[in-house]
Amino acid sequence: MAQTMLDEHRTPRRFWAEAVNTAYYIANRIFLRAFLGKTSYELRFGYASSSRAFRVWILEAKQVVETCKVSFDETMPCTIPAFELSGDDEEGTPIFEDEEGVVDDGDAGATAPAAAPAPSATSSDDDGEPLPMASSSLPRQQAHAEAGPAEDAGEVTSEIVPSRQVQRDHRPHRMIGDIHQRVTRPSVNSLAFFSHSAYVATFEPRDVSHALSDPNWVNAMHEELENVERNHVWDLVEPPPNYRPIGTKWVFKNKHGENGMVVRNKARLVAQGFCQKEGIDYEETFAPIARLEAIRILLAFAASKGFKLQQMNVKSAFLNGFIEEEVYVRQPPGFESTRFPDRAYKLRKALYGLKQAPRALYARLKSFLLKSGFVMGSVDKTLFLLSRGGDTLIVQIYVDDIIFGGSSHALVSSFAEQMSREFEMSLMGELQFFLGLQIKEGPEGTFVHQAKYTRDILKKFEMGDSKPMTTPMSTNTALDADEDGEAVDQKEFRGMIGSLLYLTATRPDIQFVVCLCARYLASPRTSHRQAVKRIFRYLKLTPELGLWYSSGSSLFLRGFSDADHAACWIDRKSTSGTSQLLGTSLVSWSSRKRASVSLSTTEVEYIAAASCCSQLLWMKATLSDFGLKFGKIPLLVDSTSVISVAKNPVLHSRTKHIDMVTPPETSAQGAAHGAPSHSELATQVAQQLVNLIAQEQRRRDPQEIGYTDFAALQPPIFTTAPDPLDADDWLRIIESKFSLLPRLTEQQKARFAAQCLHGPSGAWCASFLAVQPAGHQVTWDEFHAAFRAHYLSPSLIELKQQEFHALQQGNMSVLEYVQAFIRLLQYSPEDVDTDLHRAARLLGGFDPTLLTHLGHRYDSFTELVNVAIDMEQRLRQAHEDQQRKRLASTPPSSPSQRPPVEHQFPPHIYYLEEPPQQEQYKAQTEAQALAKIPVACEYPDVFPEELPGLPPDRDVEFRIDLVPGTAPVSKRPYRMAPDELKELKTQLQEQLDKGFIRPSSSPWGCPALFVEKKDQGGKRLCVDYRPLNAITIKNKYPLPHIDILFDQLGGATVFSKIDLRSGYHQIKVREEDIPKTAFSTRYGLYEYLVMSFGLTNAPAFFMYLMNSVFMNELDKFVVVFIDDILVYSKNEKEHEEHLRIVLSRLREHKLYAKFSKCAFLAFLCHILSVKGVAVDPSKVEDVLNWK
C-alpha cells in the first residue's frame, strides 16, 4: 500500500517511512466492507475515542467487561500496553510488538484501544517544493524505516512531531463561492476516488455556520443550489407587502458506499413547511402512493409473464413539481444576496419541505405519462399502462421511485430514454432493492425477501447472538395486560414492534404474533418483551425466508379465510385471518382482531369471509387493468354453517343477529360468483357476501351511480312552499341536476328527489309512497305529476290569478307595488304577453294621486317604473316641505318646547371653526331638503329613501371560507318579548319584499336578535353569527387606523361627509355561501342574499369594494372607512368639483347614500376644524361616565 501511494504521487523512496505511517493511519480507520459506519476503535471497544462512556478493560483477559455491574479495581494501573512498529515481516507486512513481546498482525480490529493523536510531517522533494503529508495515528515513538533500493542514496529519518489536532492543508479560501459553479467528484473506478473519500468530511454539521467552516460541505451546498437553479425552481423578487416568506433550512447528511466509507456529503435545502397556512400557501397535500399489495401483484404478474422489472429514480424529485399557489421563501441561510437582502424567492416549482411537494411531483409525473399515451389504473392511481402492437408496458410509481417492465425490450428502453429526456433520472438497472424489499429475479421466478433488514434489526436490538428458535411463539403462550409485571422501556418496545411490522411485508409467518404483541404498546411489561424477543430468535434462524413467485404459472384468483371465536380470554373477542393468492403466488394477507364480541362462530366466520371477499374484489379490479378477466373467484372457508348461510340465507338462531343487506342484482351477481364443491371446503363469493361491500363496488364501477354521486351536486332541500312558484323552481333545479348524470334511471330520479324532501314536504312524500302498490317503483314522471298536483294545483293557481287581476297599489310604495306585480305576473303570463300590456296593467293599479301626475303614455314597462319612483319621491319631498313650513309658523307653547339655537352653515360646504359647545353639538341638516343643496341636488338617485332592491352584480362578492372539516352549526332562536316579535315580523316582511332575504331549508342557522340603532332610535334586526364566525377563516386585511386616516387632512378647510345607506346590504353574497347565512326566528328559517351585519369578514370585504371604487381619489381628496366617506378640499370651488366626482362614482357603481346622515360634522366620533382633529366631547363624556 505504501509503495502504491509513492508511485501514484511520484514521490521519492526516501519518504518510505512517511508513506508507511500514512498507510497505517488510513488502514486503522477504514474497512473493506460496511460496519454500520463505525470505526475500528468503536467496533472493538463499543464507543468512540472521544466518548466519555468508557468501560472496564481487563488487562489479563484483554477484553472489555460488557455488564454495567462491575467493581472497579483502583489498584490496577490505568495503562494500556503500548505498541511500536518493530519492522517488516518476510512478506513485507508491518508487525506490532507489545511490551511483553507478543506479536500481533496489523488487523484493524486489533488496533490499540488508545491510539495516540495524529502527528504530521512535512518534507521537500528534489525540486525544493514543500510536500504536505497526511497525519499519522501511530504512537508517539520514533519510526524506523528501511532504506529504499540501491539507487537511493542513504537513509532518511523523520522525527515525528506530536500534534493534538489534525491539521488541514485545504482550508477554503472563500466560504461562499459562486453557486453556479459546478461541483465535481472523482469517478468511483479511479484511484483518485479513494483519495477523495479519505478527505471528505466525515462529520455531519450541527448548523449552517458549522458547515461553512468546511469546504466539503460548502461544495455540497453549492451543488444543491446548482440543482435548484438548473430546475428553474425560483425567482428572486420583492415579496408582497404584509407577506411573511416561509423560512428555509439546510439539512446535512453523509452518504456511505458499499464499503462503509463516506463517499458524499449531501446538503439538502428544505422549506419550513410547518409555517404554511392552508388556503394561502397550499390547498391540497394528498398524493397517492402504491400499496404493498399492488407492488407484490406487479412482481407476481411480471414473474408469471417472464419479463424483468427495471428501476429508476427521479433526481431532486420534488424540484420537478409545479405548484399552483403563490409561495415565497426566504433566501438560503449563508447564501443571502448582499445586493438584495430583503428580497425573497418566489417558487415556480416545489421545494423539499413544502406540504404540497409530493402532490406536485405526482401531478407532474401523471401529466407526463398520460400525455405519452399511458392509461391510468382504474383503482390504483399509481399504476400506468401502455399498449403498443400487442406489447404492454407497466409503470408503478412510489413517490420518486419508479419500477417498470414490459413484454418488449425496445418499449422498455424507449420509456427509459423518454423519462431521461423529461426528468433528470438515475437509471438503476434491474429491480433489486425497493422500499426495503430485496428482489432477485431469475429464469425460474422471483424471490422477494428482507434478509438484510432482518440482520440489521437483529444487530440493532442486540439479538444477533441469541439462541435461535424454530417457531415465533409458543403454543401455550397466553399474553395479557400483565398489570403486576415489571414495566419495560416503552421506546425500545415500540421500536421493536415497529421494525417487525415492516418485516411483515414479506413474512406472513409472523403476521399474527406481531399483531398480538402490538396490542400492548401502551403499557409493555417484561412478559411482552420476552414474547417479542422470541420472534427475534425465530428470525435469527430464518433470516432468508421470503416470498417465491414462480414464472410461467397460471394466473387465477382465490382466497382463504378463517377465524377463531372468542379466542381472546381477556375480552372474548375474535381474530380473523385472510390470504389471497394470484395463481400460486401469495400477494395479500391479513390478521385482525374484531372490535366487538361475536355471538356465534357463524357470525365471526361470515364476517371474515366478507373481509376476504372485499380484498378479492379490489384485486379483481386491479388485475383488470393488466388485461386479466376473472369469472368465478373461489373463496375457501372451513365452516359448513357459513357455506349453508351463503347458499340459502334463511333466518334462524345463528344468523338472525347478522345484518343481511338485500342484493340489488341477485341474478347477475349469482351468475358471476358460483361456488366450488363442498368436498374442497370451498365456497364461492356468495351474493350475500358481495352485498356487504356493494357500496364500495358501486363506487369503483363507473356504470353504477349512487345517491352519493347525486348528493355531490348539492341539490336543494325542499321543505314547504309559501309561494307555489317556489315548488316549480325546485323541480326545475332538480331536473337540471339530473341532466348532469345521464345514466340515471327513472326510478333512481324519483328516489333521489324524494330524499331531498324534508319537513312537511317529506311527510307528504312518505304518504304518497305509502299508497303505492306493493313492489311498485315510482318513476320520475309519476313523482313529478304528483308533486305538481299537490303544490301547484289548478285551484291555487286560479286563486293567484284572481289576486293578480285585483292588485292595486293601496298603501304600498311604488317599489313594493312593482315587486308584488312582478311576482303575481308569473301566474298569468298570457294576460299581459307584451311589454305595453304590462305597462298598461301596472299603470291602472297606481294610486289616484300619483296617477294624475304620471299621465298615460309610456313606451316601455321599465320607463313607467322609473318615472313612477321618481314622481313618488318628489311628491313625498313636497309634502315634507309643507309640514316643515307649517311647524315653523307655529310658535312654541312653552320654553321647554323651543327649538335649540342652531349654528348656520352654507347649505353644501362647511367651514369648520371652533367646535360648538357640547349641549349645542347636534346634527344640523335633518330638515334640509335635498333640492336646496347645490351639487347634491344633481344626484337625487344617489340619495333614495330606501334601497331599490338587490344590488347589482359586482366584482366583489362576500364569501365565507370555512375551516376544513367543520360541520354546519345550528342554534335555536332566542326568546323575544311580544313587542319584539311584532317588530321581527315587520322587518322580516320588509326584507323579504326588498329581496334581501328568502326562506331557507339550510342545515345552518344562527339566532336573530335586535340591536338598538344609535342614530335615530329604533331597532335593527341582526343575527348572532358568533358560532359561524368561530369556524370561518379570518380575512387578514387590516382596517386602517382612524388617526392615520386623518393625517391626510392637513391644510384642508372645506369638508363634506357621505354615509352610505345600509352599506353592507349593497354587496351580494356568493351563491354557494348563501345557505351559511341562514338565521332562525320564531317564524321560520331565512337566509341572506346580501352581506349581513355581524359576519366576521364583512368590514374587510366592504373596504375592498370602497377601495376599488375610489382607488383614483383615495388620499387626494377622499378618505374612506367602511361605509363613511369624507371629502376634503382647500377651498369652495375645488370642493364642488371633488364632490361631483365622488357622487358620480357612487352613481356609476349604484351605491346609495343616506341623506339624513350626510350633514353631520362628527366623523367617526371626531370633530374636524382648521386647527386639526379633536375627539367628539360627547364621546369623552360617555367614556368617563361608563361603569
From TrEMBL:
Residues 86-107 have a biased composition (Acidic residues). GO terms for biological process: proteolysis. Residues 1012-1161 form the Reverse transcriptase domain. Keywords: Endonuclease, Hydrolase, Nuclease, Nucleotidyltransferase, Protease, RNA-directed DNA polymerase, Transferase. Residues 231-474 form the Reverse transcriptase Ty1/copia-type domain. InterPro entries: DNA/RNA_pol_sf (IPR043502), Retrotrans_gag_dom (IPR005162), Rev_trsase/Diguanyl_cyclase (IPR043128), RNA-dir_DNA_polymerase (IPR053134), RT_dom (IPR000477), RVT_2 (IPR013103). Residues 84-174, 876-904 are annotated as: Disordered. Residues 752-845 form the Retrotransposon gag domain. GO terms for molecular function: endonuclease activity; peptidase activity; RNA-directed DNA polymerase activity. Residues 108-123 have a biased composition (Low complexity). Gene3D superfamilies: 3.30.70.270, HIV Type 1 Reverse Transcriptase, subunit A, domain 1. Pfam families: Retrotrans_gag, RVT_1, RVT_2. This is Retrotransposon protein, putative, unclassified. It comes from Paspalum notatum var. saurae.
